[in-house]
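Input record, target 12 of the design panel.
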């Protein structure tokens, strides 16, 4: 939680000096340290400071920046007419197959459950799936029975065991990678959503409106960059918190959220695009000091962690320039003596925003996203200071 705003000062020493002065003026004598009167005033001042702390806490709970937990829920609901996003279940597309085609349609009932071979998670169809007469297969959407990110990332073919058998069943399997599962919205995510919600009232298609509605789909969405590749067309480019392009399941849900009936102008053609990925390598040599940390193994692990932190930072936002200065900073914070970075070199990335005069209706192109390729971290040995 960020530093709170101070409504009432809580300096106990200053408060005690003030109270002692008041006591001296009223009683006609100054209470000495250790005297019963002075001890009583000391306890009184500490009690007042605790009350002041509660006053400060209560005041901060009425500010969007500092409010937390249930207090934040009430504040956002009152002023922004919003609620915290609950954990959402992942979805995938399941294919159901018959042992042979039939002269009549076979219905896979809504709620039919599927699982993986280890029965780790269970999935159920959200509606009936009709396998029409003369065919042997059909597809439908299934949702994980366990909400959260635990349902994300199941590759095609991994969900392949039917729990509730239907007529003439032969096989089932997911044909898309499961995605869209998200955990309960955090306080910081709820604050950001409340701030973005002001743009969400407009159905005229503003930039912030597309960002707000898209982020309302899932708390796993990391960055959103709408842009206009041509007049009348809006491309929404999305990455998840792990810096990867959105999955097909997530894209489908985003398009549903930005629909023409309630969210955007009917004249806008809205499509989903992936960012243009720009690959880069990390190739560096770091040197140790004889007077530095003695455990080389630990230091090497810290350098690896610093390189991983740079990769996460680099892909956390589309259009973020590939910046070796940030890598240099993170590596030096581990305690190495110096570092020589061969790669990456500074590279400017597009962020999808308009560049140039107002009358220029074209963008420079889709936003770009840095993507790591190879990592080489070389220990150059020890050097004198």
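The sequence produced for target 12 reads:
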């Amino acid at each position: 939680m960020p530093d709170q705003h101070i409504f009432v000062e809580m300096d106990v020493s200053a408060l005690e000096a003030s109270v002692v002065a008041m006591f001296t003026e009223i009683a006609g004598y100054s209470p000495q340290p250790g005297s019963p009167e002075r001890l009583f005033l000391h306890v009184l001042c500490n009690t007042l400071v605790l009350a002041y702390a509660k006053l400060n806490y209560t005041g901060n709970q009425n500010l969007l920046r500092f409010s937390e937990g249930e207090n934040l829920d009430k504040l956002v609901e009152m002023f922004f007419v919003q609620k915290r996003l609950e954990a959402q279940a992942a979805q995938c597309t399941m294919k159901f197959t018959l042992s042979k085609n039939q002269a009549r349609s076979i219905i896979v009932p809504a709620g039919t459950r599927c699982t993986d071979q280890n029965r780790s998670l269970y999935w159920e169809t959200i509606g009936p799936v009709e396998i029409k007469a003369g065919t042997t297969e059909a597809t439908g959407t299934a949702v994980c029975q366990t909400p959260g990110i635990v349902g994300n990332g199941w590759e095609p073919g991994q969900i392949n065991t039917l729990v509730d058998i239907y007529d003439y069943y032969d096989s089932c399997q997911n044909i898309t990678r499961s995605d869209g599962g998200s955990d309960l919205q955090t306080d910081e995510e709820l604050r950001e959503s409340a701030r973005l919600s002001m743009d969400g009232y407009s159905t005229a298609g503003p930039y912030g409106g597309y960002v707000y509605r898209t982020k309302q789909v899932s708390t796993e969405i990391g960055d959103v960059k709408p842009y206009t590749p041509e007049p009348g067309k809006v491309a929404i480019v999305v990455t998840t918190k792990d810096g990867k392009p959105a999955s097909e399941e997530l894209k489908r849900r985003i398009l549903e959220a930005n629909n023409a009936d309630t969210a955007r102008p009917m004249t806008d053609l809205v499509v989903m695009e992936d960012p243009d990925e720009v690959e880069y390598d990390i190739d560096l040599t770091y040197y140790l000091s004889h007077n530095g940390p003695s455990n080389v193994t630990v230091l090497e692990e810290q350098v690896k962690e610093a390189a991983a932190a740079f990769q996460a930072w680099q892909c956390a936002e589309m259009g973020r320039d590939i910046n070796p200065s940030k890598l240099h900073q993170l590596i030096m914070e581990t305690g190495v003596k110096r570092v020589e970075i061969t790669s990456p070199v500074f590279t400017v990335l597009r962020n999808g925003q308009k560049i140039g005069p107002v009358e220029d209706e074209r963008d420079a192109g889709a936003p770009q996203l840095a993507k790591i390729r190879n990592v080489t971290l070389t220990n150059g040995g020890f050097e004198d200071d």
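Residues 148 and 253 are 16 Å apart (CA to CA).
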